[in-house]
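User: quick one, fold this
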Amino acid sequence: MSGFTGCPYKILGVSDLAADEEIQNAFEASKQAYELLIDGEKRRAYDRQIANEKEKVLHVKIEELEKELEKEKNKSRHEELAKLRNELGEIGGAGHFWGDDKCIGQGGVRFVMQKEELIMVLRLLALGEKKVNLKFQADDNWELAEAGWTMRFQSVSQGEQGDGINYYLWIGNKEGGAKFKAVAEQINQWDGETTKRRELQSEKDETRERVKYRMESNYMSVRFNITIL
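Assistant:
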């Protein structure tokens, strides 16, 4: 063994109690490894294979982590949605509302919606709510954005860029798609009577979806029960 400085057991990866067959197998394996690594082309091919396998394993781990994070995010979103839905109720815009919508001064349950209420409805949509309702003063005009969603309501008033005939409602989101259908009604603020119920289907208008609803009465409130598709 003169001149041999390494430990043969360590080199072959066996213990000092290894049987002859185990030692032979270890030697054959080390010989194959030597033949692969000493050949530049084979070595590079092997390194690429190992790198690809590691990359695949890494991708699988990343996908699993992303799924877990998305699961947690969805859970948090659903909890927040349930909380906000419970806070607002139907009269605050969560879900559809078909009740008596006369003005509060006449015994109704809510005012027409103002900026704060409309912002809350946009938050509902951002959290995944599919059914909401909106109540506007007939001559109001709104342009709002919240949590990646936008809304615009245009009255018929020509002095406010209206066409003198129709109400317009736009809804959009940052993904560029917010297709919806709506049941629109005009409401008598004194007794809650509704008239001119129309089922509307949104159409694409640049980056948002829009419905057009013809004014056919002098009632001062307009209600939309909306379903996001």
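User: anything notable?
Assistant: The helical segments are 8-12, 20-38, 40-88, 115-126.
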